Amino acid sequence: MKKKNKKVFTSFYMDPDLAGEVDKISSRGEKGDKSKLINKAIRSLLEEYGVIEKNNIVRFY
Predict the structure, then answer these.
(1) CB atoms closer than 10 angstroms to residue 51
(2) pLDDT at 51
(3) Residue 58: pLDDT band with limits 50, 70, 90
(4) How confident is the model over 5-52, as pLDDT tens digits?
(5) How far from the centroid of its chain's Cα atoms is residue 39's Cα?
(6) CA separation (Å) from 47 to 21, 54, 58?
(7) DSSP of 17-55, one letter per residue?
(8) How far apart are CA 34 and CA 26, in angstroms?
(9) Which are the contacts of 7, defined by CB distance < 8 A and separation ≥ 6?
(10) Does 55 score more than 90 pLDDT?
(11) Positive or negative torsion for Cα 2, 40, 47, 19
């Protein structure tokens, strides 16, 4: 059986227009879609910044 990664709960402020669109997506999707969307967006941005690599290795500076 594959072991699931433990998730960490966090909260933050979003711009109202972004929050509205995220809520629309999550309301018509499946459970966990909002988290998947946010994680994918943050991961993509961190890859672009060069903080993490595509193979999920975190580089500390």
Answers:
(1) 13
(2) 92
(3) low
(4) 788 999 999 999 999 999 998 889 888 888 889 999 999 999 999 999
(5) 1
(6) 23, 7, 10
(7) HHHHHHHHHHHTS-TTHHHHHHHHHHHHHHHHHTSB-TT
(8) 5
(9) 35
(10) no
(11) negative
Closest by CA to 37, choosing from 19, 57, 52, 54, is: 19
Beta-bridged to residue 52, according to DSSP, are 58
- Both tokens of 46, joined, read 């961190």
The Cα 2–Cα 20 span in angstroms is 34
Scan for tokens 């995220």, then name that residue: 22
pLDDT at 57: 55
Taking CA atoms, 42 is separated from 3, 16, 36, in Å, by: 23, 18, 10
